Amino acid sequence: MKIVVTVKQVPDPSSTLTLETDNTISREKEVVLDPGDECGVEEGLQLKEAHGGEVVLVSLGPERAKDAIRKGLSMGADRGVLISDPSLAGADALLTARVLAAAIKQEEPDLVICATESYDGSTGMVPPMLAELLGIPQLTFAKKVEIDGSTVKVHRQTADGYQVVEASTPALISVTAAIAEPRYASLKGIMAARSKEIKQVTASELGIEKSEPAETIEGVVDAETRKAGEVIEDDGTAVDRIVQVLVTAKVI
Amino acid sequence: MAAILVYAELSQGKVTSTSLELVTKARDLGDVYAVALGAGAKAAAATLGKHGAKVVHVNEDKVFDDYIAEPATDAVASLYEKEKPDLILFGFTPDSREVAGRLAARLGVGLISNASDVAAKDGGFLARVPYFGGAKMASMKANATPAIVLVRPKSFEASEAGGAAEVKQLDLAVADGSKRAHVIERVAEASEKVKLEDARVVISGGRGMGGPQNFPLLEDLAGALGGAVGASRAVVDAGWVPYSMQVGQTGKSVRPGVYIAVGISGAMQHTVGMKTSKVIIAINKDAEAPIMKMADLGVVGDALKIVPALTAAVKKKKNG
Fold first, then answer.
1. Which residues on chain B are in Cβ contact (under 8 Å) with A175?
2. For B247-276, what is the mean pLDDT?
C-alpha cells in the first residue's frame, strides 16, 4: 500500500505569532511540523506497519520546510517531496490543493492522509479540494481507520457521535488528533532520516500556474476582546456570588 | 439585487440552526435562495422560507444522506450552472465544509473559510475572518465569482421574517461515480439531553478538572441548571471526553446566556468558540489565567470543591 501524507511547516504553537507588513502570518520564526500532521504521519506509519508499503510525505513550502519533512522522516516515513517555488508564497487553499494534487498524482498512492486543518491557516479546505482534484472519495474527520484489501473504513466524527464510512481505494482520509498519538523520533530514526530522499520540485515542473487568490486582505484589526470583570478569591462565599450572577442572568 | 444561495444543511432530517442563521443573514445581502438535500428537505424548505428564503431547491433522494459530499457537490454545482448566484454561503461545519471544498475545486474558484461575518460591499462581498488564532480580525474581499464563504456557527442570531418559500424540485440523477464514501452506520455518543449548541447554560471543563473521573461533577451542575457540558480541546485530545463536547476553533461554537469555564485556562483556540456568550463565569485555581481577563466573574479557587457546592446551592435555590 502506497500512502501519501501531506505535511506543512507552521509557526510553533508555543511561540507568539507575528504579522508581516502585508498582514500574512510571519513564518520566519520558530517553525515546526504541524502537530495535526504529526498525527497524520503516525497513522500512515501504523497503516504501513500493519499492511506493508511505503509512506511518502508531500509538502508545499519554502526550502526550509525540508525540516518539517525531515521530522516526519525521522518518525519513520520513507521519503519526501517538497514543492518549493517563490511564486507560490502565500498560496490560498485552492492553489495549495492544486499544487499538492499535481505532485501527488505522480505518486499514484492508494491512500492520501491529511490533517483535518492546518494549525495556522485553519481553513480546513485543502482535504476536500484535494480529493476533488484527485478525483477520489474523501473519508474525513477520521478518528479510526481500518483497511481490508481495497476497502477503507473510517470512524468519522460528527456533532453527536460518529459515522462508519466506507470507500474503495484510492481515497483521501482526513484525520483528527484523536487518531493516534504521534511517536517520538528515535535517535536511530533521526540518523536514518538524514540519508532519506527529499525530492524538490517547482510549480512549473508540475505545470502549475499561480492563480488569483480567493481573497484580498483589506485590513486586520485586533479582535474585540471582552473586558475583565470581577475576580474574587474563593473564601467560602464564592458560591453565593455565582448564584447571584446566575439569578441576574435569569438562568435560575 | 445580488442572488445569495444558502446551502442548508440537514441533520437527521431537520434543518440545522446554522442554516437558519445563514438565511437570516443573507436577507441583508440580497435575494435569498436555498438548497436542501436529503430526507426532510421539503419540511426544511418551509422553515427556511419563514426565515427569509424566497425559493428553496429541494431533492429528497436518500443518496444525499448515504454518501459523503460528492452527491451534494453534484447538486449544488448543477444548481450553480442554472441559477448563477453571486454568493454561496455554507456553514463552517464538518458536512458543509466538505461540500464547499469540493465545489470550489470543481468550479475552479477559491473561497473564504471560517468567517464570522459577511457583508455586501461595492457590488462584491466582504468577509470578516478570525485570524491569527483569533487575536485579530481580518477583512477579506472575495475575489472569485461566485464568491463562496463559509461562516462559523452562532455568528448570527436566526430570526423569522414571516415569508413562505417557493419550493422547487431540483432534478438530478446522481451518477454512480459520486456514490463512493458510503455511510454504513451512525453511532450516537453524546448523552445530550440538552444540545450543547442550543443550551442556554454551558458548563465546560478543562485540564483543571484533574481527570475524566471528575466530569460527572459538571454533569450534575448542568442537570441542576438545565444546561449542557462542554470541554476544552486539551481534554478531548487527551481522550477524557468525546469530541462532540469540544468547544472552540476546532470544535463547536456556542453562545449561551451563561458560560461557566471550569479549569480552562482560556487559550484562543477555546475562547473563539465561546466568547460571544452573554455572561462568562470562570472557575480556575490560577488568577493569571487568560480566561480571568475575559470573564464577567472570575473565581479563583478549587473547582472540585466549588462545583459540587454550587450544584447544591442551585438546587436549593430552585426548590426554595
1. none
2. 91
Q: How far apart are CA A114 and CA A37, in angstroms?
A: 7
Q: Write the ipTM.
A: 0.90
Cell numbers 481553513 correspond to A123
Domain boundaries, chain B: 3-178, 196-319
Q: Does the domain at residues B196-319 carry the CATH identifier 3.90.850.10? A: no
Architecture of domain A2-206: 3-Layer(aba) Sandwich (3.40)
**Are domains B3-178 and B196-319 of this chain identical in fold?**
yes
Beta carbons of A234 and B302 less than 8 Å apart: yes
Asked if B292 contacts B315 with a C-beta cutoff of 8 angstroms, the reply is no
d(CA B198, CA B201): 9
pTM of the predicted model as reported, rounded to 2 decimal places: 0.88
In tens, the pLDDT along B188-232 reads: 876 556 788 889 999 999 999 999 999 999 999 999 999 999 999
- Closest partner CB to B225 (pick from A92, A221, A252): A252
Q: How far apart are CA A227 and CA B130, in angstroms?
A: 18
Grid cell 540518523 in the structure block, residue: A191
Touching B: A residues 62-121, CB under 8 Å? 92-95, 97, 116-117
Find the radius of gyration of the CA atoms of chain A: 21
Distances (CA, A) of B61 to A1, A99, A110, B176, B259: 35, 35, 30, 14, 39
